[in-house]
Amino acid sequence: MSDSFMNDWVYTDIVKDHFMNPRNIWKREEHFEPDGVGEVGSLACGDQMRIGIQVKDDKIVKLRWLTYGCASAIASTSMMSEMATGMSLGEAYRITPDMVTKALGGLPEHKFHCSVLGDKALRAAIDDYLAKQGRENTLKTSVARVMCECKNVTDQAIETLVASGKVRTLKELQDLTGYGTGCGKCKQKIADYFYEMMHVHGKEVAEE
Amino acid sequence: MNRRSVYMDNNATTQMAPEVWQAMVAAKDLYGNASSMHGFGRVAAHAVSKAREQVATLLDCAPEAIYFTSGATESNNMVFNIARTLIDEGSRRNRIVTTKIEHPATIETVKYLKGLGYKIDELSVDATGLVDLGEVKAAMGDDVLLVSVMTGNNETGTIQPVREISELAHGCGALMHTDATQAIGKIPVDFKGWHIDYLSLSAHKFYGPKGIGVLACAKGAPLFPLLHGGHQEGGYRPGTYNNQAIVGLGVAAELARRNLGDEQQRLWQMREALRKGLVAAIPDVVVNGNNEHCLPGTLNMSFPRAEGESILLYLDLEGIAVSTGSACATGSLKPSYVLLAGGLDVELAHGSIRFSLGRYNTMDDVTYVVEKLPPIIERIRMMSTRQQ
Question: Quick check: helix, strand or coil at residue A56?
């Protein structure tokens, strides 16, 4: 087979580069000592991610990661690890999947969900760092987005409810928060976000 | 550059045999409509009937049993449409029995029919992917109209006891269908001896062209058209004959029949060398499927702590083509339903790779894969959240 068919790979050249040469992998022999660790996802969902950070003067000086996942998950974590290194905790907390995907030159639509774990794991690592330091975590609320304006439901409230196992279906989420019972405009957006969070936190959606 | 190209995805599709495409090129002059009375039509019709005989010889059935379709997806749909029509016409038999591991062409048709209210039982399989005859027996009854069980599974390669299942089906007066798409050319498929009523196949799985297949229908088994619009194939499958593809299918069938014994042996030797080579070189490998009842070229393996799409793509970068049961490869979140039906752990299903060898693979290909895969798995495991 000619090499020309390798020029048309499934992902962009940047994804390919990060997939073939992933940066900042948490190698055992390195004996990396993290100041904070975050882990999200589950093997049942096909991807899981762990991130460790070393922090100095509220800056991420070193980041190491491990992932069980597909090429998109590997490349997006690798890209994110380069973006976050050197950032202040506040800056790093605001990294979104969109920013990572853009830096990768794009991902196919159906692979976008593979890139949503990295930033969550990073935030979890920063949360862990702040908790270990006994410091108040103001970052958490600073990035909260209101998703249902009528009932003032934030993305973080939804994520917390999902992560704690308090809601296992969309109906339970609505019963608890009242989302979508006002103008109803947020329904689809919140449903999408709910399923994304269930995936991120490795939860199975219960039968309604 | 030391890069090879190794195609080990023959269960997805095969390359055309040179004999096949040469025959198809030679058939370029057969542009006449095989249904026309003039000379152009008659030479085309002659070629079509020769191909029909070649397929019939392979299956050991009458040429009249062969209906050309666009492939096994259509053939399977035809069979379920026959059952549906009989039920709609008031047959007292109104239940269909099939399995959880059928090809999507069946699984999705079943899902559709179930949604319309038809009664369909989907039998489970054991850990090796084998249907349990006791369960088949228990599912039989005088309300069963059709039993549909595939001959060999496309993912695991597990071969079902079709002859025995057919006996049980007929024992209660039901019709028997088998989707033999993966088995043709790899193992003997005995349409007559197994008392099959309907059999589906696709040419492109055994070195023929894409877009052409067959529904073989035993004498006396009910038949209804899925498509309407012409008199071809007795009115049961209308549409102008695809002369070149049919010629290609005929030659592929002829080659399959001639090569069967040797090919079966050669594929199994390569498959076993690959299995043993990989098991020896990679720690913690799980072989999926049934090693005793397996299509000779199929090897399905799981690599714990490694995800299938990354394995597939690292192999792709080495020029090796395989497939995976991981969800990521399709963009869904659920891995292979076939592997899960056998009770395989979800993580192992995500980490599964199917190697499917074919006529044009060599022992060198096997050696190349055995050399390239171990460092890939090691690398993926090194960056995995799951450490030993």
Answer: strand
ipTM: 0.85
Partner residue facing B331 (CB), from A47, A73, A111: A111
**φ and ψ of B140, to 5 deg:** -75, 160
Residue B61 bears catalytic tag:
no
Longest dimension (CA), chain B: 73
Q: In this complex, do A39 and B5 lie within 8 Å of one another by their Cβ atoms?
A: no
CB pairs under 8 A between A and B: 77
Distance CA B219, CA B313 (A): 48
Does the beta carbon of B242 lie under 8 angstroms from any beta carbon of chain A? no
Could you tell me the pTM of the whole model? 0.90
Classify residue B213 as left (phi > 0), alpha (psi -120 to 50) or beta: beta
Q: Is B386's CB within 8 Å of A69's CB? A: no
In A96-115, the residues whose Cβ lies within 8 Å of chain B are 108, 110-111, 113-114
Q: Is B313's CB within 8 Å of A50's CB?
A: no
pLDDT tens per residue across span A54-103 = 999 999 999 999 999 889 899 999 999 999 999 999 999 999 888 999 99
Q: In this predicted model, what pLDDT tens digit does every residue of A112-156 receive, in sequence order?
A: 777 778 888 999 999 999 999 999 988 887 778 888 888 888 888
Dist. CA B306–CA B322, nearest whole Å? 15
A39 Cβ contact list (under 8 Å, min separation 6): A48, A49, A50, A51, A121, A124, B385
- Put simply, the answer to whether B307 touches A28 (Cβ < 8 Å) is no
d(C-alpha B245, C-alpha B47), whole Å: 11
